[in-house]
């Protein structure tokens, strides 16, 4: 049985180096990192026996070392989100309290990166949980129990981001994670010469398992803070290029953010991206126009064609399910967006046709993973190629289930394949993803996807921040779409743009039954990967309606302060 501690410790070497530019600390070699991890494991073991332990730190060497220490102790690592994605400390503290209760946390590893005030608030929310500061590795070793075989305990309990529902704990054993890391390596064509560049938060599955894959391969890792990229994207790009990183995972908004920054301020002199070999684009809907714009912006700086590859993955599969091959041409189909309901066969259309929607392929299934399309629901029948249905996945990297969920509530089909809740179709063995089942509304007999609505809003002239949320609301027994869009405009300008959004939704999608509300910047909740939290956005909208019950739902409103 594979054990991640043995796999990683057997792979790292002197050339495996962790650099953390955000922390301005010295690089750490693989052997030194393992030694520090064992000393940290001894410290944890001396404090109390541990079974499940939270990691509550910003990206840095302590986070990586803490993860390895937990693997050494056969304790399940429970990555915990940082407060930036939450609406306030009360919501954040409640989120952590629920996780601590759900998975029975024994301890939480911290390093001071959150700040004393936030940490005190978190401690108060989970008073029965031990907090262990691992900012520095202990100077001496302590006695450690022998490492197990990897089959007796989970390696990771990964809480989902909760874009459409409350987060759930995905249980992943050592064998699941080992298989998932092999799938990442196969899908990305990982080589011994690759260096990982990573700014994504390590508590997110894309960040966590990308890091673990690099360590499993003995590769160099350059680890930034998320804020380094978000606040100063071009400075980050300069550092990424100088580091010589060859591979990077990111959601679609990463590519849009860099492209917009380059258009606004220009690419710094001397940036050379010719070493960049693979860039995954996943965690949210992939946009073909984003890929084209990114290539146009950075091709002159050495970026090779088709370095960015669409991918589909989820925490339940230990990340990767399908992927475009390195440097493979993109494959996209243009279809009738009004014929994308479950059970419908896709209808090809010209790109400029009315109701046309271009959907990009996320590639074929990677080695070891199976993908099927079925009618939604655990007992839904399998559907033929070119028919829209729920994506199902199977393979050794797929979770055995959610923590504490009764068997009848687990999302598995009778044959054991996982029902993902995502809708898509297969053509030529490649997966085309069109949205979440819960994000689809039937309005006046037609299917509409929240992803389509959000994409239309973001591209409306005058939408200044590009942050928006679309979700379904039952209004007097009839489903309708609700759109919240963030803006710094004053009321008059916001109302003008709101009318333009409405006109564009009617023109592009034929969607008239929609409520449009402008809200203040930073009002809409997002997950750590940049996906909108639609369930939380719906709750926020409910507070707006409660505060203004006389609002006309069919007219755009001014800013909500």
Task: Give the arrangement of secondary structure elements.
Layout: H1 4-9, E1 17-19, E2 28-29, H2 30-47, E3 52-55, H3 61-72, E4 76-79, H4 89-103, E5 107-110, H5 116-125, E6 130-133, E7 154-159, E8 169-173, H6 174-188, E9 195-198, H7 205-216, E10 220-223, H8 226-231, H9 233-243, E11 247-250, H10 252-265, E12 278-281, H11 288-298, E13 308-314, E14 319-323, E15 332-336, E16 356-364, E17 370-374, E18 389-394, E19 401-402, E20 418-427, E21 430-436, E22 440-443, E23 446-449, H12 450-458, E24 468-475, E25 478-486, H13 491-509, E26 514-519, H14 534-547
Helix pairs in contact: 2-3, 4-5, 6-7, 10-11, 12-13
* Share of helical residues: 25-40%
Globally, the shape reads globular
Structural class: alpha/beta
What's the arrangement of strands in the largest beta sheet? 15-16-21-20-18-17
Estimate nothing, just give the exact number of structural domains: 3
Strand content: 15-25%
Query: DSSP helix count?
Result: 14
Distance between the termini: 56 Å
CATH architecture of the largest domain: 3-Layer(aba) Sandwich
User: Low-confidence segments, ≥5 residues, pLDDT <50?
Assistant: 551-561
Task: From the alpha carbons, calculate the radius of gyration and give it in angstroms.
Answer: 23 Å
* Main sheet record: 6 strands, antiparallel
CATH superfamily placement of the largest domain: ANL, N-terminal domain
What is the count of β-strands? 26
**CATH fold label of the largest domain:** Rossmann fold
Classified by CATH, the class of the largest domain is Alpha Beta
Mean pLDDT: 90
């Amino acid at each position: 049985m594979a054990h991640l501690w043995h796999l990683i410790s057997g792979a790292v070497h002197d050339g495996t180096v962790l650099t953390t530019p955000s922390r301005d600390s010295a690089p750490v070699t693989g052997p030194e990192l393992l030694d520090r991890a064992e000393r940290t494991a001894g410290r944890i073991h001396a404090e109390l026996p541990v079974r499940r332990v939270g990691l509550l730190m910003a990206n840095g060497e302590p986070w990586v070392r803490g993860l390895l220490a937990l693997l050494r102790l056969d304790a399940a690592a429970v990555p915990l989100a940082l407060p930036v994605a939450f609406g306030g400390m009360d919501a954040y503290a409640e989120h952590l309290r629920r996780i601590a209760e759900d998975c029975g946390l024994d301890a939480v590893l911290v390093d001071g990166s959150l700040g004393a005030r936030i940490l005190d608030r978190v401690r108060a929310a989970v008073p029965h949980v031990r907090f262990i500061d691992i900012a520095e590795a202990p100077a001496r070793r302590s006695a450690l129990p022998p490492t197990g075989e990897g089959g007796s305990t989970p390696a990771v309990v990964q809480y989902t981001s909760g874009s459409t529902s409350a987060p759930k704990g995905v249980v992943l054993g050592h064998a699941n994670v080992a298989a998932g890391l092999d799938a990442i390596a196969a899908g990305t064509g990982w080589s011994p010469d690759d260096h990982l560049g990573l700014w994504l938060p390590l508590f997110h599955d894309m960040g966590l398992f990308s890091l673990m894959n690099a360590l499993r391969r003995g590769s160099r890792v350059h680890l930034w803070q998320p804020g380094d990229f978000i606040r100063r994207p071009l400075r980050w790009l300069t550092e990424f290029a100088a580091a010589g990183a060859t591979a990077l995972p990111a959601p679609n908004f990463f590519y849009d953010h860099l492209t917009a920054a380059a258009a606004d301020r220009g690419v710094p002199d001397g940036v050379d991206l010719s070493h960049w070999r693979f860039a995954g684009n996943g965690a949210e809907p992939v946009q073909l126009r984003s890929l084209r714009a990114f290539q146009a912006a950075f091709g002159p700086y050495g970026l090779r064609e088709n370095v960015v590859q669409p991918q589909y993955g989820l925490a339940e599969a230990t990340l990767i399910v399908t992927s475009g091959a390195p440097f493979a041409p993109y494959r996209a189909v243009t279809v009738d967006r009004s014929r994308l309901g479950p059970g419908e066969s896709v209808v090809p259309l010209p790109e400029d046709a009315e109701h046309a929607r271009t959907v990009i392929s996320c590639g074929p299934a990677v080695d070891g993973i199976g993908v099927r399309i079925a009618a939604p629901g655990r007992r839904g029948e399998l559907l033929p190629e070119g028919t829209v249905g729920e994506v199902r996945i199977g393979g050794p990297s797929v979770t055995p289930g959610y923590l504490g969920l009764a068997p009848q509530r687990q999302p598995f089909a009778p044959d054991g394949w996982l029902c993902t809740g995502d809708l898509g179709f297969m053509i030529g063995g490649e997966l085309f993803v069109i949205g979440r089942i819960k994000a689809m509304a039937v309005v006046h007999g037609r299917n509409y996807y929240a992803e389509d609505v959000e994409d239309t809003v973001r591209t409306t002239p005058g939408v200044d921040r590009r942050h928006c949320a679309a979700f379904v609301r039952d209004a007097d027994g009839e489903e309708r779409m609700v759109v919240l869009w963030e803006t710094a405009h004053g009321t008059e300008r916001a109302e003008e743009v709101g009318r333009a959004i409405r006109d564009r939704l009617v023109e592009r999608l034929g969607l008239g039954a929609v409520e449009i509300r402008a809200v203040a910047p930073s009002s809409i909740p997002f997950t750590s990967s940049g996906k909108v939290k639609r369930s939380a956005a719906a709750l926020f909208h409910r507070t707006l309606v409660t505060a203004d019950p006389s609002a006309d739902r069919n007219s755009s409103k001014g800013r909500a302060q």
